[in-house]
Design a protein that fits this description.
There is one protein chain. The chain has 424 residues and is mostly helical. It is 63% helix and 3% strand. The protein contains 17 helices and 6 strands. Strands 1-2 form a two-stranded antiparallel ribbon. Strands 3-4 form a two-stranded antiparallel sheet. Strands 5-6 form a two-stranded antiparallel ribbon. Helix 2 packs across helix 3. The longest helix is centred in the middle third of the chain and has 29 residues. The protein is elongated, with a radius of gyration of 42 Å.
Length: 424
Amino acid sequence: MDTIASLFSFITTPVSWVIVQFHSVYGAVFGPDTGWAWGLSIVSLVILIRICLIPLFVKQIKATRAMQTLQPEMKKIQERYKNDKQRQSEEMMKLYKETGTNPLSSCLPILAQSPFFFALYHVLNSIASNDTIGVINTSLLESAQKAHIVGAPLAVKFTDSASKVEALGASLTDVRVVTAIMIVLMSASQFFTQRQLMTKNVDTTVKTPFMQQQKMLMYVFPVMFAVFGINFPVGVLVYWLTTNVWTMGQQMYVIHNNPTPGSKAQASYLERLHKHVTTHGKVSRRRDKVIVKAIVAKGRDRNEFERKFINGLSKAGLAAQTDGTVIKSDTAVAVEAEDGTPTTGTPKRQQPKRQTKAQRQSAAAKAAEESEQKTSLTKSDAPEDAKPAPAAKKGGAKSGSGTRSKAQSGQRKGPQRPKSPSKK
């Protein structure tokens, strides 16, 4: 504990000061020695920290999206250099450098919370050990020791002895029941948060080892919380349960309003957006315009749900613009096929129905009859002076061939051999 205290001494005093300030506010309402005053002070500390970490959370979302985009390339590198781990690592680092991504960015909120978590742990442990720390003086120390949360003192743990618990004015049974319930809630909230991420906000079109790792963490993290939770004071369990609930709510908001491309959450979001746009004829919210703008900019790289959204707008007589707005379109709008190939909005030509043999024979006979009728009409309409002139003499056949009229249809073109005179 002395090692932890020395490592996080720079943050222990600020954490204790924030808790004392919140305690002075809640103590005026609920009483300074009540568990409500000290418990809500810890909850308020969590909320304050998480509000300050929102920029890091946004960066975490962007880093996670970038990592998901790189999963196909990472899989190719793993398959290409599966027998050379060193070359595989070098190519991975090269890919991260070229794309500007960092795998550790997704862990930033957890890493940033760690100093506050260990500082709070040390503060509560000092309260249990009857030691002043930071700005918590003797009077505040006595007040914190009297504070009970549903019958459990603020600074006791599940593994504490009965004598230590009784010294703080509580029973061992109450402490273990309360801590067990809080550990179960803490593990369940962590499991639900991770499961929500895996089932709703993961690109289902890409199957990579990264998804298998996330699925494994979905079961590992709750077990870790359960194992380590028995060694956490009640106040730290309040802190960790509060931050898990905050993370779960924050993630639900992100999944609902800014889902991962290609995920089930994106399909649900685009269905809601399509219904709103076709009803009102426009995109109202700014974040919706940003998403529509990104979909339009993708072009042929759109996924299945995005193509369905664009095609739905086209069928409704609307067209998405490059600035994220939607306008009415009177002309035929291009509709994308499932492979991303643009096609016209007109329906496809259907293949003619297959005819029977009798139908084909009757149609052929009818066509031949019509052709004969057209030929006979052409011959009857030809003028009489268009008939060929009498054959010239043998010597003048060559010179007269140029002035000869054109042959009727059905006769051989060019100079013809004169007919021999009939014998009398």
